[in-house]
Amino acid sequence: MIGRLRGILAYKQPPWLVIDVGGVGYELEAPMSTFYDLPDVGREVILFTHHAQREDSVSLYGFLRESERRLFRDVQKVSGIGAKIALAVLSGVSVDEFARQVQTGDVAALTRIPGIGKKTAERMVVELRDRVVDLGSNPLGSPSLPNDPQSEATIALQQLGYKPAEAVRMAREAVAPGDDAAMIIRKALQSALR
């Protein structure tokens, strides 16, 4: 498996690009997030790569940032998601925005990414919540997590097993001015028991 590829950008036409490395052309598929920041053809470029070998094909994917490659790999660990949808995720939202959507359980925003339906978005929230924490680009290496009590309570309720939409509703109905996340969670759980 190749980790990084350094060479001259010989061709770029989404989703394909070719990197010339010492006279050998490597054809890669890349998300739009990478295409937006590529240098002009004929200039040097360094890409993080992901090599995928299947029974009937070999594919090479390129990314300008390590966080994009990691997200590409993590998204494919969700059952029912392959490289095509993983590229669509990176082409549709930034790594930080995707991490925020997963952390907050924003299923509606995830379903706006081409190829992702409601059930897939819900699986992504459940299966990726713990993985996306360290993908962001802030100084601490993690995306900004919500710091308002209602959002924190919503995430906690989801981690307790409530579906994203249900957790949002429960937190919204339980919140009162001045409540911290613990109080909102307590009131939401008490309300659920009635």
3D architecture notes:
Helix 4 packs across helix 6, helix 7 (149-159) packs across helix 8 and helix 7 crosses helix 9. This protein is of the alpha+beta class. Strand 1 (4-13) and strand 2 form a beta hairpin. The chain has helices spanning 32-35, 66-75, 83-92, 95-104, 107-110, 118-128, 149-159, 164-174, 181-193, and strands spanning 4-13, 16-21, 24-29, 44-53, 58-63. It has nine helices and five strands; from the N terminus they run E-E-E-H-E-E-H-H-H-H-H-H-H-H. Helices cover 43% and strands 20% of the residues. The protein has a five-stranded antiparallel sheet with strand order 3-2-1-4-5. The radius of gyration is 20 Å and the shape is elongated. The N and C termini lie far apart (55 Å). The protein has three domains: 4-64, Beta Barrel (OB fold (Dihydrolipoamide Acetyltransferase, E2P)), CATH 2.40.50.140; 67-134, 5' to 3' exonuclease, C-terminal subdomain (DNA polymerase, domain 1); 149-193, Ubiquitin-associated (UBA) domain (Helicase, Ruva Protein, domain 3, Orthogonal Bundle), CATH 1.10.8.
